Amino acid sequence: MTHEHRIADLLADFPVRVEIPVAWGDMDAMGHVNNVVYFRYFETARLACFAELGLGAIEKSGDVGPILHSASCRFRIPLTYPDTVTVGARIGDVGDDRFVMSYRAVSHRHVAAAADGESLIVTFSYATNSKAPVSDDLRARLLQLRGDAANGGAPTPS
Question: Which CATH number is 3-147 given?
């Protein structure tokens, strides 16, 4: 199995993927990529996922858009320069006014998962400064990206 196939296998459940080079300046005094940088990697994948969903910073209808509620990361292996990571994103649970996104950062150098993360995204009305319901249209796009459309609306197994 080729290097690329092994990386693809590690990201098989992540439909949105971005490739990011590890920069020298991403490393800290301990000689590995600083923990904050992983959250930037996840942010890059999150924005690529938003683009895939046709979601801008603020939805055109009603000034409703996504806002990051919380984020977490499980660090698996340290990254160092030089390397490249492919970061995958996928949609998890979809609620009335929120949805979960999961991430995986895979090191090309190590051909291994470097970190797994998760974030909670809330749909937010910037006009009223409060949570807003996930629109039917957005819910359909989220479920389609998650793969539910292929299963007749049933959640995909995790």
Answer: 3.10.129.10
